[in-house]
From TrEMBL:
Keyword RNA-binding tagged: no
Species this chain originates from: Cosmosoma subflamma
Every Tr-type G domain range: 2-107
GO cellular component: cytoplasm
Name the record gives this protein: Elongation factor 1 alpha
Keyword Cytoplasm attached: yes
């Protein structure tokens, strides 16, 4: 039940790549039972296919987290397991243990070529610095010196600095959760949900309609 929910949530949130670790293999009857693994693999393959995943591109790895079997190195307790292999358009991959399956995950392309979009999660007033909006870069690049516009309030200002984990950044890319200091804008003028964009490159604006996945 819970596994189905997790797979469905992952797919709905846009997670394209999946690894299925079949845990607690030490607790099967008898322990490390091949037929139990194959039964689970067949059942899970069936429902992830219905959700939208291609089972051929998913690594199924029998593991025991408690004993460390097939986690970092191949286990001697499951000689029947010849390894996992995946087929996808970017190429094939194979291995014996979970860490190899993790290493075979393809890193997603960051949409740095698109216009800047940074939805605000919060806005802080920090003594000695000033107004610091916080959020995750969804598309584009944010750099110090950028003239940003906040939609829908249409407030334009310059970014003085960009920080992530208390370190100054020369640029923030998609996926980065950042705080950035802006000039001459009070905390009261900005609020959670506003979207920052580059005033000179396709700034965010109102739309008559939009398409969403719900």
């Amino acid at each position: 039940g819970q596994t189905r929910e997790h797979a469905l949530l992952a797919f709905t949130l846009g997670v394209k790549q999946l690894i299925v670790g079949v845990n607690k293999m030490d607790s099967t009857e008898p322990p490390y039972n091949e037929s139990r693994f194959e039964e689970i693999k067949k059942e899970v393959s069936s429902y992830i296919k219905k959700i939208g995943y291609n089972p051929a591109a998913v690594a199924f790895v029998p593991i025991s987290g408690w004993h460390g079997d097939n986690m970092l190195e191949a286990s001697t307790k499951m000689p029947w397991f010849k390894g996992w292999n995946v087929e996808r358009k970017e190429g094939k991959a194979e291995g014996k243990c979970l860490i190899e399956a993790l290493d075979a995950i393809l890193p997603p392309a960051r949409p740095t070529d698109k216009a800047l979009r940074l939805p605000l999660q919060d806005v802080y007033k920090i003594g000695g610095i000033g107004t610091v909006p916080v959020g995750r870069v969804e598309t584009g690049i944010l750099k110090p010196g950028t003239i940003v516009v906040f939609a829908p309030a249409n407030i334009t200002t310059e970014v003085k600095s960009v920080e992530m984990h208390h370190e100054a950044l020369q640029e923030a890319v998609p996926g980065d959760n950042v705080g950035f200091n802006v000039k001459n804008v009070s905390v009261k003028e900005l609020r959670r949900g506003y979207v920052a964009g580059d005033s000179k490159n396709n700034p965010p604006k109102g739309a008559a309609d939009f398409t969403a996945q719900v």
